[in-house]
Amino acid sequence: MANANHNHGDSIIGQAGFTLVEMMVALFVFSLLSVAGVALLRGAVNSNEVTDAKLGDMARMQRLVSLLETDLSQALPRPYRDESGERVAAFVSETGSSERGALSFTRGGQSNINNKLRSNMVRVSYRVNDGELQRLQYEMTDGGSISEPAILLDDISGLELRFRDKRGQWVRDWRTERLSDLPRAVELRFDQNGRSYRHVFLVGTGYL
């Protein structure tokens, strides 16, 4: 009887354990699950990085649109004098020149946070330099030094501008009959990272 009970106990122990093959299969399945988990985690991290980059691009584009919309809506029909004292048209567009910029004009509505004795007008300029779309601001409306450029977008190419004149016609080159003339609207086109963008802005609407 004792031997019979002993054999029966050995049978139970054998049934409750794992064979070497079962252990290898379990380890293989666990390794597959681990690899899949790492792949899913890496995919989630990459997805978050792409999403963050896209959101950053959208934020920069929105900043550009907001700045141009604000600046152009408050553009003034005021000619200015350059550093040599020559009178310059109120609105200038020279896409091939990095000195005056693709757009250069005087706008009103400048805030005076520090209560300095200065005009509420400010001359601003937008230009593309080494693939960067930059905004510059002059210290004085006539002549004066210029600020460090604020980089709004990078990897810019193929910048094109069109202007709606007082007759309602779209023209590529802005030519003024009077120094104080302003376009009615500005169309901006450019490429960035393989994508094309188009924006249209009204000019001077803040003072109509």
- List the strand order in the largest sheet: 3-4-5-6-7
> Helical stretch count?
2
CATH class of the domain at 65-207: Alpha Beta
Which percent range describes the beta-strand content? 25-35%
* Annotation, overall tally of beta strands: 11
Give the CATH topology of the domain at 65-207.
Pili subunits
Please state the CA-atom Rg, rounded to the nearest Å.
Answer: 33 Å
Give an overview in words.
The chain is α+β, with helices and mostly antiparallel strands. The protein has a domain at 65-207: Roll (Pili subunits), CATH 3.10.610. Helix content is 33%, strand content 27%. It contains two helices and eleven strands; from the N terminus they run H-H-E-E-E-E-E-E-E-E-E-E-E. Strands 3-4-5-6-7 form a five-stranded antiparallel β-sheet, with helices on one face. The chain has a four-stranded antiparallel β-sheet with strand order 9-8-10-11, with helices on one face. The protein has a two-stranded antiparallel sheet with strand order 1-2. A hairpin with a 2-residue loop joins strand 5 and strand 6 (132-137). The chain is elongated and about 95 Å long.
Features of this protein?
Pili subunits; four-stranded antiparallel β-sheet; 33% helix; alpha+beta; 208 residues
Topology:
Elements: H1 2-16, H2 20-73, E1 80-81, E2 87-88, E3 91-92, E4 103-107, E5 122-129, E6 132-137, E7 150-153, E8 156-164, E9 170-171, E10 185-192, E11 195-202
Short summary:
It is built from 2 helices and 11 strands, in the order H-H-E-E-E-E-E-E-E-E-E-E-E. With 208 residues, it is an alpha+beta fold. The longest helix is centred in the first third of the chain and has 54 residues, at 20-73.
